[in-house]
Structure prediction request, 249 residues.
Amino acid sequence: MGRLDQRVIVVTGGSRGLGEAMSRLFAQEGAQVVLCDVRDELGEAAASSITRDGGLAIYRHLDVSQVADWEAAVAEVEGRFEKIDGLVNNAAVLGGGPLLQHTMDAWDRVVAVNQTGTFLGMKHCIPAFQRNGGGAIVNISSCAGIKPTPGAGPSYAATKAAVRLMTKSIAIDFAKQKIRANSVHPGRFQTDMSVEIGDSISDAVTEATPMGRAASPREVAYAALWLISDEASFVTGAELCVDGGLTAV
Ligand SMILES: NC(=O)c1ccc[n+]([C@@H]2O[C@H](COP(=O)([O-])OP(=O)(O)OC[C@H]3O[C@@H](n4cnc5c(N)ncnc54)[C@H](O)[C@@H]3O)[C@@H](O)[C@H]2O)c1
Prediction:
């Protein structure tokens, strides 16, 4: 028996990195996973690979910043599986660097994906949870949403902090409707995004981490698995740091 048997779970940014790792783990625990992303080729390949390994996974194109994409995706998933039990808002992009070099276009893009995308995901999936008698949300924030990374610039930290408090706000408002919302705050883990951030910032984060290393995506995925499962049935509005001790310092 799996920890997520019969659950239908939407994972944004599911084509690679943590999104792919969570999708694979959830499918191994019995969930029907819907991977959503804008990297269609990678997403199709990830869903096929999970299916080949015995899991239930499909891929669907979804730009998290677009209202019409959310409307269509939720209608399609409900039409096909008759319900949605869980949502992981994981899609995100890095910021435009330090303040004085930061362009307006970069600011708008980071806010649109990281913050508006998370807002829209919750806004469109919660009515589906209500129709189904409950649901669980896991929002992937970052340690940077609690304690900014030196040199990484303001937009990533600002949007990840917004995700942290949006999660708590939704947790309070929907607690009586059996809808839980929690945030995960990873430290550095090894993906394309951690490569994009650059060696000097990545090395500084690892050095500041008491465990002295980066995580694997799977180590972070296990935290999301617990929060989205019924094992966390009395946990809502919580922030779970998966950071090797970084925010404890
Ligand atoms: N990698 C790290 O060290 C680290 C640390 C802390 C937090 N995080 C957070 O973990 C999450 C996953 O990060 P990752 O390292 O796997 O990143 P990644 O870049 O490997 O994956 C992010 C995915 O989001 C997708 N995406 C981007 N814009 C999108 C949009 N508009 N609509 C839908 N999908 C979109 C990308 O195509 C990609 O597949 C992110 O929320 C990130 O902020 C990462």
